[in-house]
Amino acid sequence: MEEPIFSNETQMHTFGDVDRRLQNLARQMDLKLRHVKATPRPYCSGPEDVPPDTTKRTIPKK
Fold it and tell me: Which of 39, 4, 9 is nearest to 25 (CA)?
């Protein structure tokens, strides 16, 4: 039986409940990420394209 994603948060009292919730959410996110990676993205030649040797995510310098 699948747990709902949003449940009554006040019912989680033990670390076991929180840990199980985190594991479940991590599994769902992993499946979604794998599904996104598996679907090929159509090639678009527009201004939103990323120039070579750059990424959209910028890493702030520390």
Answer: 4
